[in-house]
Structure formats: C-alpha cells, structure tokens
Amino acid sequence: MEVLERYEPLLADSAAFYAACRRPLPAIVRVNTIKADRDRARAALEAEDIVHERVDWHPGLFRLPETQPGANWPYVHGWLHGQEEVSALPARVLDPQPGERIWDAAAAPGSKTTQLAALTEDTGLVVATDKNLGRLASLRSNAERLGVTNLAITHEDARNHSLKPFESEPYDRALVDAPCSCEGTVRKNPDVLEEWSIDHVEGIAQVQAGLLRRAVQATRDGGTVVYSTCTFAPEENEAVLDRVLGRESCQLVPFDSPLEAAPGVTEWQGREYDPSVRHARRIYPHYNDTGGFFCAKLAVGA
Amino acid sequence: MSAENVGDRFDRLPATDEDRAVPGRPTRAAVLEWWDERYGIEPATFAEYSFWERGAGKIWAFRDAGTVASPVEIQGLGMTALRARQEHWKPTLEAAQRFGDRASKNRIALPDAQARRFLAGKDQAVSWDGDWGYLIVTHELAGDQVPLGVGLYTYGELASMVPKGRRREL
C-alpha cells in the first residue's frame, strides 16, 4: 500500500481508503440487453438458484455474493457478462444512442465495447481498436458470446487510427478507457502495486495523451469523448486532460455521476492544471465499495 | 476485385451468382436460402445484415449501416455465422444463439442433463426422427426453450459442435 501514500493529500479519510483497498471486490455481472432483457436475465438467475442483488445506480448490474460469473446457464447464453461495477460507468457517461458511430480506442478485452454495443441496441457502428492481438482474441470471444453484430475490430496503435475502412467519416462518440498503472484495481490484483514506478506512470501518460488526442480528432464537432482510467495518479488523469485541452479542439463538460465521486484535482505536486479539469470525477474505493476510477467527459469542437 | 479468396481480409458476398467474381464464394442469396430451407429462419431476419467471407468458407454476419466498403483488412466484422465451401454448411454456435430462436425446423430440445452433456462437448444418443445433419440445439431456461448451440445428428447420436473454448462443465 506504500505506493498509495502519495495520494493522502487528496483524501479526506485515508484510513477508510486503505481499508477498502484491502478488501476483495464482490463478483458483479452486467445484463447483456442484446440477448436478454433484465427481467429475463433475472428470471434465469432465479431459475438457477443463483443469489443476486441489484446494484442501485445501474438497472442492469447484479452482485453475485456466492458465486463467480462464468459458471451458469445465463452466462453461457451471453445474457450476463462479468464486469467490475465501476467499469460500467464510462459507457453510461458516453451515452451512445442507437444508429450512432462509436469508437472504443483501447477496447480489449471488450467489457466496455460490448456495453457500448448494447447501448446502441446493436445498431449503427461500433469500432473497437486494440494493439495487442492476444487481447483482441479475448475481445472477439466476448463479443461473440454476447451476440454483438454491429462491431468492427481493428488491430492498430489507436494513436494512428485510420478512418479509411469506415468511409473516412468521423465518429459521434469515442471512449478512451486508457491503459494505465491500474492502481484502482488493487482490490482485484494486489500485485499491481509491486509493479508500480513513476517512470511507468510518466511513460504511459504520453501514450494516454496520444490516444485522447486521436479520439478528439476522430470525433465530429458536437460529438462526445469520454476519457477514463483505473488509476488515481493525476499524472495519468488531470495532467493528460490538461495537455490535450491545450492542443485539440475540445472542452471538459460536467456530468452527473451516479456513483459518489470527488472532483478532478486542479493542482498536484506543485503543478497546476486547467481549472475545467474539476469537471472530471475521481472515484475512490471507499466511496461506493468499488474499484478506483477516473472519468472525464469532453465536448468536441469550439 | 481479385479472383480468389484472400484469407485475411473481409470481402462482401456477391448478391447473386451473376455478381460472383471469386470462384466458390457463396452468394448472399444462397446464404439466405440456406437459413430458410434448413432451419426455417426467414430471409427478413437478415434484412439489415451483410455477409462477408474472411478465411476460406468462414462467413460473417455484420449488422450493416452501409459504413464499410469491401474489401476491408480488419480483424473482425460482426460475428462468424456459418462455415460454407463444404458439402453441408454449418452454423456457428454464436449464430445459433443469436438467430436460432426463429428456427422452425431442424431444432432439437434437450432436457437439462443432456444439455449439460452437450455443453461439455460430449456426444450422446438422442431420440430424433428428423433430418440428419446439423441441428440447432435448445434447452429450457427461465421458462423458455432457448438456443444453445449446434449438434451434428447421425446414426441416433448427437455430436456436440460446441467449440473447445466455449465448453463448460456446469
């Protein structure tokens, strides 16, 4: 937990924060509305005697206190998908509509991609990009089990994403759920902190800014981009936003977070960021008993 | 358009035989007719879908808003729907699950214990007096018969076609 001590200045109750970080996460499933609506999925859980509890803020999430997500009939049918509770947030903030063109810039293994496809009701176009072929195989397997059919998958560095296969038309919305130092997943994978280094944080921040810039460029004026990570590090969050705000035509906009959250920080270790980064939301594990998360919404264009 | 199938890119299926440039490539018309004749799944089911070949005989169904021009070199386009370029075409598990509830023939309902064996990848004797060949396998879940996958029926036995990665012992 030593790595996390650097965030104490940002926390009102660091004891509660550490206590939450030490607790394992409950298993959560999301109902895949492409294949079954919530009532049907719930009926299947009941028919299979699987104990489940509704998650307050999201009608399609269930907590499974006594089992793992993958070993039951509704999962086999792709009616359910195991997905950490807080990671269901960015797709909801992006709010894709049926018929729209959506880009998922760092897509594998596809929990959020398939959630985006479900929110478009499997219409329009969802383009999922990742540069890791092995992880793309997981994405494809998840998308197929979940019955997604409006999905195009590209293998490339998203910083150089080409719109050419897609009639060179910009997207209505894009999600950058960026690769990151993953501190917020400590409840799932405690080893993540052992691999932590400031060099890695600073290196990956460059990649994150590149991804976000390309997403803004590839989205039409008036469109929306959501930037999210599962890290607490301002270097990978507010600093990335600050850098992109100065270079691309976009602005941060406020949004209602259905989960308890703190505003983005405008100052960190002597560096100041654009004041609008306060519109971003930081979600600490002790707030909602979830993993840690960061989420920002950007409007593209002047 | 090139005159042979290129394994690592997507080519849209020709609409009809007259439009075909690549030998052996199935047509959209033939794919629709096959779903209809073999399973009773009506062509209207696929009105919003285009079909593409990537990998010899591997046919993908893409819910197409007219946004992708053929050919295209990407890693995925919709879902794999069937295996063609062989005597008996074979639906994928994914297509059976997604479209199989519309099937009115060549579908077999398995009781729970048999459905579990099928999901585990095991072959088993079943009682079936219909056609031989690939059947859509259903079982009851939450009060409905829901399609689970594809089995190959011959000589009184149903062979599970559930791909290795999708097999489970529930």
Describe this protein with a few key phrases.
heterodimer, A: 302 residues, alpha/beta, Rossmann fold, Alpha-Beta Plaits, 2 domains, nine-stranded mixed beta sheet, four-stranded antiparallel beta sheet, 9 helices, 15 strands, globular, B: 170 residues, alpha+beta, Archaeosine Trna-guanine Transglycosylase, Chain: A, domain 4, five-stranded antiparallel beta sheet, five-stranded mixed beta sheet, 3 helices, 11 strands, 16% helix, 30% strand, elongated
The count of DSSP E runs of length 2 or more, i.e. the number of strands of chain B, is 11
**Second rung of CATH, namely the architecture of the largest domain in chain A:** 3-Layer(aba) Sandwich
- Which blocks of ≥5 consecutive residues of chain A have pLDDT under 50? none
Radius of gyration of chain A: 19 Å
Label the overall shape of chain B: elongated
Shape of chain A: globular
Distance between the termini of chain B: 47 Å
CATH class of the largest domain in chain A: Alpha Beta
In round numbers, the mean pLDDT of chain A is 96
For the largest interface in this structure, which chains are involved and how many residues does each contribute? Answer: A-B, 41 and 32 residues
Secondary-structure topology with pairs:
The complex is a heterodimer of chains A (302) and B (170).
Chain A: H1 14-22, E1 27-31, H2 38-47, E2 53-54, E3 61-64, H3 73-76, E4 80-82, H4 89-94, E5 101-104, H5 111-119, E6 125-130, H6 133-145, E7 151-155, E8 171-177, H7 198-217, E9 219-229, H8 238-245, E10 250-253, E11 262-263, E12 267-268, E13 271-272, E14 281-283, H9 285-288, E15 293-300
Parallel strand pairs in A: 5-6, 5-8, 6-7, 8-9
Antiparallel strand pairs in A: 1-3, 1-4, 2-3, 9-15, 10-15, 11-14, 12-13, 14-15
Helix pairs in contact in A: 7-8
Chain B: E1 11-12, H1 28-39, E2 49-53, E3 58-63, E4 76-77, E5 79-83, E6 90-91, H2 93-99, E7 107-109, H3 112-119, E8 124-125, E9 133-141, E10 144-154, E11 157-160
